[in-house]
Amino acid sequence: MEGSRKISHDQNFKNLIIDYPRQAIELFSPEEAGHIGRNARVVPLRQEQLKERLGERFRELDVPLMVEWPGGQREALLFVLEEETDPQRFSIHRLAHYCLDLSELCETDRVVPVVIFLNIRGSEPVQLNLGGDCHEYLRFHYIRCALQELNAEDYWGSNNLIARLCLSLMQWKEDQKLEVYARAVSGLSMLEPDPEKQLKYIDFIDIYSALDDNEMEQYKAQYPQENNVMATLSERLRAEGMQKGMQQGMQQGMQQGMQQGMQQGEAAALKKLITLKFGKLPGWAEEQIHSATLPELELWLEAILTSDTLESLLSRH
Prior knowledge:
This protein is α/β, with parallel strands linked by helices. The protein has helices at residues 9-19, 21-28, 30-33, 47-54, 92-106, 161-165, 177-191, 195-209, 213-222, 224-252, 255-278, 283-290, 294-303, 310-314; strands at 41-44, 63-68, 77-84, 111-117, 127-131, 136-141, 143-146. It has two domains: 9-209, no CATH class; 236-314, no CATH class.
């Protein structure tokens, strides 16, 4: 799938952490998470504010999370989570700079740096020490979470949604690939009630599992229940769109109006699914959907979950 569209790993993990901040802390920094408690509030810091205050020093794809306790029971705690795809590009000096900048900006010394490695070489620096002949003046280290070092089986039934979504990035045996995919899909369906986020993160699972056509057919045969999850989701969103369209048509009180309403509902549902899976709808696609017939819209709605690109989806007739 990586060949069909460019994958933004940084953006994927930024979205994941912003959508599920507490679960990110619990998976990527479990020791610190154990001291937070359920009454604390975890919120991502506003990116616009950070960019305005830090200027060129701002690193857009790091995700700072602020943990706050009600009534000021404890001083706020700032987590800085950085995703690193290529370990050769990781700079502990850059991370230290960023943590110091945020510490000054937020007026706190309670900062927890966390680095999430998707790949590892084994030679990543783990500590930075600055000093002279007489003294050490600065010592900096971070929490290292290398997903490849986690055993996927340990998270088979985890209630942490991020853990379930990231199963394919963990360590597993070659014959467990379909099981990894099935566990991720079932976790998404059980732990995320929002259908829009379900659709958003089935795409995340697809990207990092990278099943080929033969593997997908085997998966459908071996895990029919899990396979029905996303098909049901697509039908649900489609039905919602059709219902709205039919209501508009019924209000017009004419058969033609109902037909037009159904078509508008199918088009609205398709646009919503496309936006969730592929991002902003380009103008050419908007025009093509606007001029499409009802059978074409129905075909595209059925095919969207198995299409890798928007171009391949809308080329089906």
